[in-house]
Amino acid sequence: MAEPVLPITFTPAEVESRGMSRRKLRQLEQSGAVERIGHGLYRLVGAEPVDHDLLEIALKARQPTLCLVSALARHELTDIVPAVHDVAVPRGVWRPVVSAPVRWHKFDVNTFAVGRTEIPIEGRQVLGLYDAPQSIIDAFRLRHAIGVDVANEALRRWLRRGGRPTDLIRLTKIFPAARLTVLRALQVLL
Questions:
Q1: Alpha carbons 16 and 103: distance in angstroms, whole number
Q2: In angstroms, what CA-CA distances link 98 with 72, 93, 102, 136?
Q3: How far apart are CA 126 and CA 12, in angstroms?
Q4: Is 69 helix (H, G, I), strand (E, B) or coil?
Q5: Bridge partners of 10?
Q6: Closest by alpha carbon to 91, among 102, 104, 106?
Q7: pLDDT in tens, 73-92
Q8: Residue pair 132/75 in contact by the 8 Å Cβ criterion
Q9: Is the distance from CB of 65 to CB of 72 less than 8 angstroms?
Q10: What is the C-alpha to C-alpha distance for residues 2 and 165, in angstroms, rounded to an integer?
């Protein structure tokens, strides 16, 4: 009888659902065929390289979305290399235990999808990412957490690359708490 085929990344529960024991999983790990990449998460050795932290977040959280400094870095709107992943989930959604360094943020369910895109992580796995205008709005909304200098620099870089102020002004109608601060920053920079 042939051994079941495992996906590239899997949990012990998936191993059992394919008819393989946890003992066999330990044997595979000891032999170097699989490696533990996170809390309750394993990966076949030799698979294409992937960011294990982002993969773990994508697999374990519901609608995880890179936000704030992590999103700004992904859009190259800051020089900061975040030591911790800023990840938003809808308010009321359970935040899983992960071994990746994560700073969880709870965003309003009614506006959670605004500016949200998805990036592929591995195969069928995706991770949310707020687009550049939404990331800038969030930086101004949560400037007390990340610093007003980070928000201003992100806005400056985005404008230099051809960002349109009308896109931000339109978003401030959805996020009125950021409106005055964004308008003042735009007045200074334009």
A1: 32
A2: 22, 15, 8, 27
A3: 21
A4: helix
A5: 42
A6: 106
A7: 999 999 999 999 999 999 99
A8: yes
A9: no
A10: 60
